[in-house]
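Tokens in:
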């Protein structure tokens, strides 16, 4: 058994050395809650690549920073390599109007964010900005209702409110999750 554990750890070390990108995972025990924490077993809270995705009218849209001449994994919001306290740090960092309960469309625009569509193969259509979801139709993201789901690999949910043609708001539940770097790279093929 010790021999197996040694061989396994050498294999993991070799696999990490092959990867050119630096990766990190933060292991969290307990779900943060307003009054303390909900005790759970250990689960992955976030990693070096946690993209934000919403599905609107059957199309997946990923939050992505605009302006890069050569888009890559690092242009996905949540995968830019910044240090994070939790999944939602990239959203909190976009706050600019001192209203911490809502992240508005104008704040997303100010941060240089696009909602980039994907095709049926989950490839990002970043070279086709006409396929992006129009940010003027976004009302806000509810920052008071950010949720982390404890699981073997944790993921989070957030509520995005969009404006319908009749003036009402429609709630879309978005997702942020751990995405292996190789799968993220395939989204740019």
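Residues out:
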């Amino acid at each position: 058994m010790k021999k197996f554990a040694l061989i396994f750890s050498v294999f993991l070390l070799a696999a990490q050395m092959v990867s050119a990108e630096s990766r990190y995972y933060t292991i969290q025990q307990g779900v943060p809650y307003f009054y303390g924490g909900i005790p759970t077993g250990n689960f992955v809270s976030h990693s070096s690549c946690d993209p934000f995705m919403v599905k609107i009218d059957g199309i997946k849209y990923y939050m992505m920073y605009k302006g890069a001449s050569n888009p890559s994994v690092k242009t996905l919001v949540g995968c830019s390599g910044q240090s994070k306290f939790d999944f939602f740090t990239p959203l909190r960092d976009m706050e600019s109007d001192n209203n911490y309960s809502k992240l508005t469309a104008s704040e997303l625009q100010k941060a240089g964010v696009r909602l980039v569509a994907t095709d049926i193969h989950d490839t990002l259509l970043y070279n086709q900005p006409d396929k992006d979801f129009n940010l003027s139709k976004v009302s806000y993201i509810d920052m008071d209702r950010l949720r982390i789901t404890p699981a073997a690999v944790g993921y989070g949910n957030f509520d995005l409110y969009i404006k319908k043609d009749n003036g009402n708001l429609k709630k879309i539940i978005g997702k942020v999750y751990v995405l292996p770097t190789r799968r993220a790279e395939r989204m740019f093929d």
